[in-house]
Amino acid sequence: MYASRRKVLARIAALGALPWGVSARAQTGNAAAPIRLALIEGLSGPFANAGEAVWRNLLWACERVHARGGVVLPGGARPLELVRYDSKGQNEEAIAALRSAIESGARIVLQGNSSANAAALIDAIEKHNERDPERQVLFLNYSAVDPVLTNERCSFWHFRFDAHAEMRMKALMSVLREDRAVQGVYLIGQDYSFGQAVLRLARQQLAAERPDVRILGEELHPMGRVKDFLPYVAKIKASGAQAVITGNWGNDLTLLVRAAREGGFDGKFYTFYGNALGTPAAIGEAGVGRVLAVADWLPNVPDPAAEAFYRSFRARFPKPADDYVHMRMQLMIEALAQSIERAATVQSRAVALQLERADVALAGQRGTMRAVDHQFQQPLVVGLMDRQGTPGVPFDVEGSGYGFRVIRRLSADDASLPTTCRMRRPQLA
């Protein structure tokens, strides 16, 4: 099922799409077996654009490792081989892809665009690793941000490189706390574990940070199935809310903000992911000064190294629609390469022990892995949508003419939160 022509072509692309048109294996100067990375992601269906953005980011990160000679091990440098598996965003498909990846030799799994899929993969990997210690698997998570994944459901085999939802909400609240024009909010999200967590965290943090703000409505909608959000926008307008708080992502966010524009809602959007994947273009001029997004990094972070980094990404992927760059995914691959080299082996337990103390930096952004719960610690920023060319907005998003000006920066210490993780660690021979 997964040995499709597209998968084969993707594997070739991951190995061969270097600037000089040579394969990654040739670039390392030896015929060592590649280190296979299995990307299990929704690459078709309503959130395919988000999956393809992940693919581009991880491909580019692997290419940088190839360009410097590969991952250095005692037996010689080895390339990274990134192989695509389409989960279609479904738990059952993700588990089937995991089985296929393991059988093909992959011992490192990458996934992120669904906390529900991530939870299913963690459970499956835990069981597999206990049952089959000779083929243990590591799970590197770049976007699944339900807090429980590094709290109650933390796993020795799982490493999260994105800030979880509570950390992201904390960053948004640092801005909303000072936004006295907002007296009432409407909460809306996708009806699954992450969307439910965002609404719960919004209630909790509003009570702590802005007890004067009234919650005028709450809504959970089916994920990936709503084509027309105008009825939801009508309820938001009728509530009298001055702002919407949402964790929606992908097409569910694009359609929501487009409906808000068409329906004449003139309030603010406090979002987790409003900075790309069609959202700025969908809302257009109506979003200037009104759409906020929290991220680990934004292209308009004022730093010469960050600017050079972003320009190089846009040179690699010149189509305007392809310019959604994720710094955390670049740091994740750097942390993996660093950890394999320090472990001097690709054996999963040994690499995990090194990942627990990963400390990586790129283009002015630095992050460290917290060993107690495997939650990456990194700075966060909040951006406000504005026209390209205004002060602080040299870069637009996806050719839309609009970008995000950084209005708040949180250090890694400021963004950090305590954990309730009680990790069950395997016996390490």
Automatic annotation (TrEMBL):
Keyword Signal tagged: yes
Pfam entry (one): Peripla_BP_6
InterPro entries named among the record's database cross-references: BCAA_transport, Leu-bd, Peripla_BP_I, TAT_signal
Signal peptide extent: 1-26
Protein keywords: Signal
Record has Signal as a keyword: yes
Domain Leucine-binding protein residues, every copy: 34-386
UniProt xrefs under CDD domains: PBP1_SBP-like
UniProt family annotation: Belongs to the leucine-binding protein family.
Protein name as it appears in the record: Amino acid/amide ABC transporter substrate-binding protein (HAAT family)
Organism: Tibeticola sediminis
Lineage: Bacteria, Pseudomonadati, Pseudomonadota, Betaproteobacteria, Burkholderiales
